[in-house]
Amino acid sequence: GDLAAGKYLPISFGFDTATKIFSELVGNLCQDAASAVKYYHFVKLMGRTASKITLEVALQTKPAITLISEEIAEKNMSLDSIVDYIVRIITLRRMKGLNHGVILVPEGLVEFIPEMRRLIAELNKALAEYERHISDLPTIEHKREFLLSHLTVESAKLLASLPSDLQEMLILDRDDHGNVKVSQIETEKLLIEKIIYRISEMQRHTDRFFGAGEGKIEATPEQVEDFKKVTLSTQSHFFGYEGRSSKPTKFDAAFTFQLGLTAASLVLAGKSGYMAAITDFDRGGRVLGLPLTGLITAEMRKGKEEFVIEKSLVELESPSFRVFAQNRDKWAEEDLFSSPGAIQYWGPISKQIPIIVALDQDYPDFDNFDLGEEKQTVIE
Fold first, then answer.
1. Is 370 exposed, middle or buried (0-12, 13-18, 19+ CB in 10 A)?
2. Could you tell me the residue ranges of all domains in the chain?
3. What pLDDT, in 10s, does the model give residues 300-349?
4. Is 0.70 surpassed by the pTM of this model?
5. Architecture per CATH, 18-112+183-244
6. Which secondary structure element, helix H or strand E, spans residue 225, and what is its range?
7. Per the CATH hierarchy, to which homologous superfamily does domain 115-180 belong?
């Protein structure tokens, strides 16, 4: 979902298939939560950096809570403020008799929390600068103590406050580019742990959290007493490979077929350094060859600046995010979820395109795509 180029390449292939699979699964969990009336399902969704997959799934399923990494970075929200935001919604739902729901968490969330981003940047620098020395240290505890002495006071405190397994991931587990393996960081479980603790704190000190005043929740004495009896039952999930291993949707099948023809045409024309792209999904499709040089930016990898394809993130001023932001409070206040069901290959919704594409490209609807007519050709 993080490979896109505005109107020239609205979305990458596979996005539609993955989001429809995830939407089916999230919709199932919404149904289960409303039926069992006791679980909060924390769902981490694939998408290493961008939250586009999470945003699309949210628009399709309307869960109780959805976190968007780019918004958290823009608002400079700390880990504690994210926990407070979720706990407030859980509390307000409980006061309406709802003790269940689904919470969507983007895979790359941890790198967008400003304090975590600073910590990771400082760790990256220290790990690159003292790589040989750190590798010679015998235990993870020795490595941790060494790194703590090379972090700012704030980052050192943050690292020390994290669960030991998360500390180990941040220190040891890096990919070939030196990046933190965010898919292996159980952000959803970290949130669960902190949320359960915060709720227990609220139950022990109700006067600090309920009543009149800034940041407090207005509640009747009866509602406060009811909240003190709350037991938060949670389930955690990570949807990743499930969305990558499915048979393609009709849209992705047509999209990739056209991309293949475009790529072959570029090769036959001797055009090197171009990426095949398709746009105008609602009007028969328009093939393009995008110069790779126009898509490149610089990023820090293992302490060094390297050229990479620029990631396409959720834009907070985009029509798709604005629609989400205008509706999320309603989804939080009561169960208004949708359960889209399985991918369809015929019928009225089989040609549905991603909602965020239709909104951001200003298509009249998202119920239909038009990528031309497939015809059999005979080469003699």
1. middle
2. 18-112+183-244, 115-180
3. 666 677 777 778 899 999 999 999 999 999 999 999 999 999 999 988 88
4. yes
5. 3-Layer(aba) Sandwich (3.40)
6. helix 221-227
7. Phosphofructokinase; domain 3 (1.10.10.480)
